[in-house]
Design brief:
Integral membrane protein, elongated, 3 helices, single chain, mainly alpha
Length: 104
């Protein structure tokens, strides 16, 4: 049981492997920003284009980030961003969609 006596030097509860992951961290940040933008702009009917497109891109970047993520910390941030992106995307689709008002 020597592992129980080792000090926790991880620095974070979620960073479990002590290695840098620049690509995954960038995808987490991009997904979170797109999710917040999508969610905030979904509250306004006339911003449905921005809401739906940022939500769609946030869903895609979050899904790819989940595919290549390596730690719980990365997955936690990606799930938050994915959830916000999905809600913003669906509300944007309900208010007019990806091309609402631009085609015919």
């Amino acid at each position: 049981m020597a592992q129980t006596m080792r000090p926790n030097i991880a620095g974070s509860l979620f960073a479990t492997d002590h290695k840098p992951h620049p690509v995954q961290d960038t995808l987490v940040a991009v997904t979170l920003v797109l999710g917040v933008v999508s969610l905030v702009t979904a509250m306004f009917d006339h911003l449905h284009l921005l809401s739906s497109w940022t939500g769609l891109v946030g869903i895609l970047t979050g899904a790819y980030g989940q595919f290549i993520s390596e730690t719980t910390r990365e997955r936690f941030g990606l799930i938050l961003g994915l959830g916000a992106s999905a809600v913003g995307f669906f509300l944007g689709m309900a208010h007019g969609g990806l091309f609402g008002g631009l085609i015919g």
